[in-house]
Specification:
This protein has 209 residues and is mainly alpha-helical. The protein has a single domain, classed as Hypothetical protein af1432 (Orthogonal Bundle), CATH 1.10.3210.10. 57% of the residues lie in helices and 2% in strands. The protein has a two-stranded antiparallel ribbon. The longest helix is centred in the C-terminal third of the chain and has 31 residues. The radius of gyration is 18 Å and the shape is globular.
């Protein structure tokens, strides 16, 4: 089965390979997919959500650019498979989809030089962003939100990464979302390159602390 990506390349979603992963496909596709399958008062893309997760992790762990990159890419498999609402995805009917999603996500992470599995804290930041979306975009009271999602938000709040008194989410055009996503990606990659160079210089100077 061959399906087109955002850039028009044909690939098999059941056999995604590292060399096929393209940042343009990820940014472009995620910027065109609306959160909550479009059941929102205005357009808010998966790319916007991914950038928010990245922002939460930047605030919580400012020196962990590996986590920032994982946060930005945590939904990247959806560029190749599409988005599925969380309650549906958790059902037995989607067992095979979840397995394929995990495999595709692993491929994307390896393509960007990351471990094949997301760090557990990424799920907390993802939930924290979801909490904000439910409160701001859908207007849900906290009592209606899954307690696990609330706990994740509180955990990020304790780290100073989120502030419930100033939650704001704004509409953006897909093009702006994609460009913002790519800018964040390039910024993190520059930081990661600098970190690697600093480590190599430290080793060359005999600093192994």
């Amino acid at each position: 089965m061959l399906l087109p990506t955002y850039s028009g390349v044909l690939l098999d979603p059941f056999d995604l390979r590292v060399e096929q992963v393209d940042r343009r496909d990820i940014a472009g596709s995620l910027s065109m997919q609306c959160r909550f399958v479009g059941a929102l008062p205005f357009f808010y893309s998966v790319a916007d959500h991914s950038r928010r997760v990245c922002g939460v992790l930047r605030a919580a762990y400012p020196d962990r650019n590996d986590l920032h990159l994982q946060g930005l890419l945590h939904d990247a498999s959806e560029a190749y498979l599409g988005d599925v609402r969380r309650p549906l995805k958790a059902s037995r009917l989607f067992d095979e989809y979840r397995a394929l999603e995990a495999t595709s996500q692993s491929v994307v992470l390896r393509a960007f030089g990351l471990p094949p599995a997301l760090a557990p804290v990424i799920h907390l930041a993802d939930n924290a962003a979801l909490y904000e979306e439910l409160r701001v975009l859908l207007g849900w009271p906290q009592s209606r939100i899954n307690p696990a999602v609330v706990r994740s938000y509180r955990a990020m709040q304790e780290l100073g990464a989120v502030d419930e008194s100033s939650m704001t989410l704004t509409e953006s055009l897909p093009r702006d979302s994609a460009l913002g996503f790519l800018a964040d990606l390039e910024s993190i990659e520059r930081e990661r390159s600098a970190t690697i160079v600093e480590g190599e210089l430290a080793l060359a100077n005999g600093d192994v602390s």
